[in-house]
Design a protein that fits this description.
about 300 residues; alpha+beta; nine-stranded mixed β-sheet
Amino acid sequence: MIEATYDDRDGFIWFDGALRPWREANVHILTHAMHYASAVFEGQRCYNGTVFALEQHSQRLIESARLLGFEIPWSLEQINAATNEVIAANGFTDCYVRPIAWRGSEQMGVAAQRTKPHLAIACWHWGAYFGDEVLAKGLRLDIASWRRPAPYTAPTRSKAAGLYMICTLSKHAAADKGYDDALMLDWRGQVAEATGANLFFVKDGALHTPTPDCFLDGITRRTVIGLAKARGIEVIERAIWPEEMSSFEAAFLTGSAAEVTQIAEIGPWRFTVGGMGKQLAADYAALVRGQSRNS
């Protein structure tokens, strides 16, 4: 069965304050964001009718826009309400949600002071990000040639669309070589993250994770750190160099789309699938599916 393209589906998208039929939620070809990447977005999941960490995602969307120099003209509460509205309109209880805010087509050129900010929220059914078959055996990651930029060269605390260009390049290069994803180093050569998820490693009963000083300190990342600490697991945030990966026993990714996904290989290094990563994946699944409506 061929999956429907993302421009040709039934359903609704919340767009600038109102629900629009999916196929009518369009922007002009001269939209500033399309030419100059002046857009920010979020990725979140709804479980059993409730978006996990909705408030945190909406707040990060607002802060990301501010880091790019524009204000979203809807409040945190309005964005939360719009998110729930579009999920209900599409009849979902479990789905992926994609809010995006961007500069419009009122001005063309690098300068964008006269552009109008826009906001849209879409949702669709999206199963395991890497596919169910991969989940059981663990991911295979290549080492990307592109690196995460230094925080003084880009707004790395923003979930900005432009920062994902090198992720797409890295993901494509990895796929061409038969890998599931790519590990990205930072500008110093330290381990940073995968193309769309944070990294954790297991060694001697403790979790090690790169310090997020040039990439997002993910909401799922922070959640998993909390779950690990609740189990009495020591969590060490620090600089990690690639050659250290030979000493790690296990590894996994965290992200709203990826959830908690174990890794079997990164380049020449091999890891055990199971153990702590499997336990934290189960803890995460229990948390996101058992939360109260107002959490």
